[in-house]
Amino acid sequence: MTNRLRLALLCALVTLPSAARAQAALRLDGTCEKLVIGTQDLSASCRNVLTNAVSRNRTSFDFSTSDGRTLSFSGNGAQQEATEETDPLQPINVVTTGTDAAPTLAIGACRFSTPEPGRTAITCEASAADGRPFAGTFVTVARAAAGAPAAPAPR
User: Fold this and answer.
1) Cβ(48)–Cβ(30) under 8 Å?
2) Which residues, in sequence order, are CB contacts of 10 under 8 Å at separation 6+?
3) Rounded-to-10 torsion of CA 118, 151, 53, 37
């Protein structure tokens, strides 16, 4: 790893968002299809809720399990409210496992599928310098706002 990359990653760590400073957070309901932390495949216990938090110019996608374990992918970028209007790629440079764990430098990205009626897939993957993999895939469920007309049935 070059010194320039190490410096960039260190700067990213210093500006990590914290819950107390979060400027916006979205709770997304849907289906967690995959959750991998290192050598552990936690897909079977992954909760069907994903949180997208933003603080200044950093955003994170937070996955969790039914027994309280968490995996957060964090990088520079904007909140993803309408994936058809935003970049399909969110660069990731840090992952955090657990609420009290130290951040781990990891390089990867979160990608967004082309939105389909009622669903969008968010796939995050990153690798630590020692090769440990981190991955999560979540498929959102779109719901009509209260009072909004129902979506037409697919043909």
Assistant:
1) yes
2) none
3) -10
